[in-house]
Specification:
127 residues; alpha/beta; Rossmann fold; 51% helix; globular
């Protein structure tokens, strides 16, 4: 059984009913999300005007396994800066990849530029 790490964009696809949501929903029972990416999703939804209680309820309904961003992941994410900077990956992107690398899992994202990432993490584009 594979473990999946959800990027913020993958979670947003589910919450907004965007293309790729079905693939992310299929992975949910074996998926984890970095606390960094969870925070990203909360921020993006509130920025769109979604009330905080609705955000909490919507994310809570997904029964997400949220993983703390620890020192090992922080080091990996920081080290990824050099090899991903030219692609414009954010700290959130690198946190997701760091968790995938740390857990030897597959990162799920909607961000097509991740297909160009040349690191020791597996990435699957959901659309």
């Amino acid at each position: 059984m594979s473990e999946w790490v959800l990027d913020a964009s993958a979670l947003m696809a589910v919450l907004l009913g965007e293309p790729g949501a079905d693939r992310v929903l299929a992975a949910l029972p074996n998926a984890i999300v970095s606390a960094v990416n969870y925070a990203e999703v909360v921020g993006k939804l509130i920025e769109r005007g979604v009330p905080e209680d609705v955000v909490r309820a919507s994310l809570g309904a997904l029964s997400l396994d949220i993983v703390n961003f620890d020192a090992d992941q922080a080091h990996i994410a920081g080290a990824l800066r050099r090899t991903t900077r030219h692609l414009g990956l954010s700290l959130g992107d690198r946190a997701c990849l760091a968790l995938a690398m740390h857990r030897t899992a597959v990162a799920l994202t909607t961000d097509s530029v991740w297909a160009e990432v040349d690191i020791r993490a597996k990435v699957e584009l959901v659309r």
